[in-house]
């Protein structure tokens, strides 16, 4: 089980107190996703928190699908969520579905009616809104509020039997229409929806509301600490009311924490689904998505995500985390392990005119300059190479130390070359550059005659393998969301994906899906799990090599 860092936080302190005081002998947490989309990095925060907390104190964590809204839910999402939780490195104790408790929930609704704590209401949604009042004005009692227990039981039964259309009736808790907390103003606890449920099929046409269902689910499972995000803080009195009035045997405690927000990222499943449905991305696992599936396909590792979640911590105050912090953790994780290689993403041919035609030689290049034990690999060098187009300028700008006519640079792991000629097509585009090399300057030969300021990478034109490289930028241009009057779809970055056809050294031949490489000067790359084949390798850039981001430790 994965638990790198158990950084302290206020929820952990509550758990420690509860164990020390004897309130609980064992703690049980749960991760309760609604299967209406794929999990995202925000969910990862909640997953790490729930699983690591229970794990640290030898407790248990359930994976429970909160599937009370059939219209939006699907088994595709159930399967993806299971896969993502496992991939992150966690094992649940029990796999459960809220829908398995629908019978109990129905009985509890009947119990509330019998206690005079719930009633069937016929107000239309508009009327109900009107009756609810506002933050400053108290609500008004529904004219249906004082129906008899018998009538309420009968109407609920007939709701269940499908006698009424969607929206015609609801079951409401009878609490307090003048409560300063709007959630307590006779909230709806059951509604009619004639729809097929992914788990219960057409058995039910009434479904419990989240605020009624969730505390019951927690109590049935004996959850001790029910951890949720801050927007449920005002719902806590209702949570406690349901547990008490439904006479649940166990009393779970709801604790709220701040959800994770990331710069340049939308995180709600509703918005992520829109990106998928509008075809703006190529599915939930598009590497530009902040979903676990997207991050995995981009090349993130489970450890990098867990370490990120530990570092951001758990607090009560909302904040926005710089997405570069996530990038920091994948660099940390991959730097010691990623296989090194050279690739040219935007190729320009370089011909070494004084290197004998038909000849080639094998050079030894170190795999990891920071780690001798990573060894060396053999790279073939010959007369015709590819270099990066941006490593040549016909008219160099100031402080340009790479190739330009008359200038000399080192080819990584090979020789000094000096640019002697520029070949162009009819339109004046540079198609090839000619250089001479100095055989005395071979890397590792101890040559000290003169120095050059630039080292550039290359691949051998004859043996390099063609490959596709996908470079990413943030999908969302800034984090001003709808509240600034702009819909987030208007802030899509048109350059979020750049696809380049280049070459990579033959040592990576046969690279398998999800293998990670550090490509010299370009960054960390992952072999794409969907589109890469032996004949057409596709590399996704996970992250560039450097950033100005500093982690405050
Ligand atoms: P979204 O608003 O993104 O659709 P949700 O809260 O509706 O998310 P659920 O499937 O209900 O999604 O969430 C499952 C669990 O994950 C809940 O306990 C929820 O509080 C938590 N969670 C969701 N988003 C975040 C986030 N950004 N940061 C931390 N926890 C989150
Ligand atoms: Mg939700």
UniProtKB/TrEMBL annotation:
Residues 338-438 form the Glutamyl/glutaminyl-tRNA synthetase class Ib anti-codon binding domain. Residues 455-528 form the tRNA synthetases class I (E and Q) anti-codon binding domain. GO terms for biological process: glutaminyl-tRNA aminoacylation; glutamyl-tRNA aminoacylation. ATP binds at residues 34-36, 40-46, 229, 259-260, 267-269. L-glutamine binds at residues 66, 210. It catalyses: tRNA(Gln) + L-glutamine + ATP = L-glutaminyl-tRNA(Gln) + AMP + diphosphate. The keyword Cytoplasm applies. Its EC number is 6.1.1.18. GO terms for cellular component: cytosol. A motif ('KMSKS' region) lies at residues 266-270. A motif ('HIGH' region) lies at residues 33-43. It comes from the Bacteria. Its main location: cytoplasm. PROSITE patterns: AA_TRNA_LIGASE_I (PS00178). InterPro entries: aa-tRNA-synth_I_CS, Gln-tRNA-synth, Gln/Glu-tRNA_Ligase, Gln_tRNA_ligase_bac, Glu/Gln-tRNA-synth, Glu/Gln-tRNA-synth_Ib_cat-dom, Glu/Gln-tRNA-synth_Ib_codon-bd, Glu_tRNA_lig_a-bdl. Pfam families: tRNA-synt_1c, tRNA-synt_1c_C, tRNA-synt_1c_C2. It is found in: Cytoplasm. One of its GO terms (molecular function) is glutamine-tRNA ligase activity. Monomer. Belongs to the class-I aminoacyl-tRNA synthetase family. This is Glutamine--tRNA ligase.
